[in-house]
Design goal:
By secondary structure, this protein is of the alpha/beta class. It has helices at residues 2-9, 23-27, 42-55, 63-69, 75-80, 98-106, 109-114, 131-141, 152-161, 180-194, 209-217, 222-235, 256-268, 283-290, 301-309, 321-327, 344-380, 382-386, and strands at 16-20, 35-39, 84-86, 90-91, 118-125, 146-149, 166-168, 202-206, 239-242, 295-298, 314-318, 336-338. Strands 3, 4, 5, 6 and 7 form a 5-stranded parallel sheet that branches. The longest helix is centred in the C-terminal third of the chain and has 37 residues, at 344-380.
């Protein structure tokens, strides 16, 4: 998402600053000559910056109070900004707990304090059946200059909540551009790292630590299911690889690499070798690697977007409405399942059907991919219109 926003907004702004709760990770992704990194560690944001804004909220229009808080790190940049673009991805969803709800409010509250317009770019939001979630969402979203829903279900939830300024925009990462040199690098990476001995269709899977946790709670053994599925695919002459789309091992729910290693070891014990592709934290290379597959298996959301954006037929195993609403315009809803429905038989059946129809599905997806990319770009440009 960040790289897509950089691509679109760079011609319009002299200074783009990224307020990051993971500055060391994000420092590897932003262009050193294009984007300024502002450290916004979650402890500082949630335990100091936001509580101060709450404490002085009744006095926020008094200039000396505003000026004093504007001397603090992060708050200084927010106070001086023309606009704040919120790239949360998913927010204000029932049942995610008080800490995440507080964070959803916290990313926007300092900007409200200083009167800096907040543009909540394309995100999955809702439902809002919980009273506390509904109250926090309504209080926050009504103060935003723009609220962009990532799909029709999110838009419906927002309209039911009374958010009049909500509008539909595809996920921001649909606007990410990759050039031919990156595509060639992806081809070379697969050749050098995979060790494939045949030229069968390439099926790439992006396993998710988040979906793994949901599966465990539901009594579904995702590692065994994917092991059985990959073994069947390889036995049928296909090539299989895994691509961890989130590899931050410092946060367990983001550590897809450890999930891939477990599946790899399980397959090795059965005599199968499945490579793990490593884009080294480069989102453009990760997208290009997805683009090399004949069909794709996604459980990490933005790996699904990477496939959809390149018209790669994708089977998706998800945990919320955000997957289905993003896949729907591409005709991929029939290949989207909830984690609780995951079995090797169902997954193999979907993939077999997809491999038979892949050329037709690819052409069908290609009819809408350019339009979705253009709409995602327009959604990001909403920031330009109001800043």
């Amino acid at each position: 998402m960040l790289c897509a926003v950089e691509d679109v907004l760079r011609p319009y702004f002299d200074d783009i600053a990224l307020a990051s709760i993971l500055p060391e990770k994000d420092r590897k992704q932003v262009g050193p000559d294009t984007t300024r990194l502002v450290s916004s560690g979650y402890r500082y944001l949630l335990l100091l910056a936001v509580p101060l804004c709450i404490l002085f909220w009744p006095l926020r229009k008094i200039r000396p109070v505003r000026n004093t808080l504007a001397q603090l790190p992060l708050l200084k940049d927010i106070a001086a900004a023309d606009a704040v673009a919120d790239l949360s991805g998913i927010a204000f969803v029932d049942g995610r707990g008080i800490p995440l709800l507080y964070y959803n409010v916290a990313v926007a509250l300092p900007a409200f304090f200083f009167g800096t317009p907040v543009y909540k770019l394309s995100q999955a939001m809702g439902p809002f059946r919980g009273r506390l979630n509904a109250f926090a969402a309504k209080w926050t979203l009504r103060r935003c200059a723009t609220v962009a829903a990532r799909g029709n279900m999110s838009l419906m939830h927002l309209k039911q909540l009374g958010i009049a300024n909500a509008q539909f925009c595809p996920d921001t990462s649909f606007a990410l551009q990759i050039d031919e040199s990156v595509k060639r690098a992806a081809q070379d990476h697969i050749k050098s790292q995979s060790g494939f001995t045949n030229d069968g269709p390439l099926i790439v899977c992006s396993p998710s630590a988040v979906v793994l946790a949901h599966c465990k709670d539901a009594g579904v053994d995702m590692v065994s299911v994917l092991t059985d599925t990959f073994a069947s695919l390889i036995a049928s002459g296909n090539r299989v690889a895994m691509l961890p789309h989130s590899i931050d091992s410092g946060i367990r729910k983001n550590d897809d690499h450890s999930v891939a290693r477990r599946i790899q070891q399980s397959l090795r014990e059965r005599g199968y070798s499945v490579p793990i592709l490593d884009p080294s934290g480069n989102p453009r290379l990760a997208r290009a690697l997805v683009g090399q597959s004949a069909v794709f298996i996604a459980s990490r959301f933005h790996s699904m977007i990477a496939a959809l954006s390149q018209s790669i037929p994708v089977v998706t195993v998800g945990w919320s409405h955000k997957y289905a609403e993003a896949a729907e315009p591409f005709g991929m809803s029939e290949f989207t399942m909830d984690y609780s429905q995951l079995t090797s038989e169902r997954l193999i059946s979907m993939l077999s059907e997809m491999l038979i129809r892949r050329d037709k599905l690819h052409d069908q997806m290609k009819l809408v991919s350019a339009d979705v990319s253009a709409k995602a770009t327009d959604g990001i440009k909403l920031v330009v219109g109001g800043a």
